[in-house]
Design a protein that fits this description.
- The chain is mainly α.
- The protein is built from five helices and no strands.
- The longest helix has about 40 residues.
Length: about 130
């Protein structure tokens, strides 16, 4: 009987693969969290890495139980910092200096695209 002829063999293979990938995700998440945590001493980081190598499943479960809350806080803090950096980058790239904005508005006024009232609104908004 070949591997593909039995449904439960296929099911077991997929289940094992999913558990393995979940384990790898957990290990890399823990390693990333260890190096992201600036409060933890370097020796403690080495101890956690050592135990991850030699007692992987037990260490993974103990780490998640012992330091899971801090792991979530550091992850949320990192996401917040990344979002603020992205927002700042977008704001800097989307608007020019006030002089550039006024000169663009003046060009639109001279071309007759906008009215003098609209030009004054744009100018007051840029200068505010």
């Amino acid at each position: 009987m070949s591997f593909w002829e039995n449904f439960w063999d296929i099911f077991w293979w997929f289940f094992t693969a999913c558990v393995f990938f979940a384990y790898l995700f957990g290990v890399f998440a823990i390693i990333g969290d260890l190096f992201r945590d600036h409060k933890l001493n370097g020796w403690w980081k080495a101890v956690w890495i050592f135990f991850l190598c030699f007692l992987p499943f037990v260490t993974l479960l103990v780490y998640l139980a012992a330091r899971g809350d801090g792991m979530a806080e550091r992850s949320a803090q990192r996401a917040r910092r990344d979002q603020e950096a992205a927002d700042s980058f977008i704001r800097r790239g989307s608007t020019g200096s006030p002089a550039e904005e006024i000169s663009k508005a003046k060009a639109l006024l001279d071309a007759g695209t906008i009215s003098p009232e609209e030009f004054e609104i744009i100018k007051s908004r840029v200068l505010a």
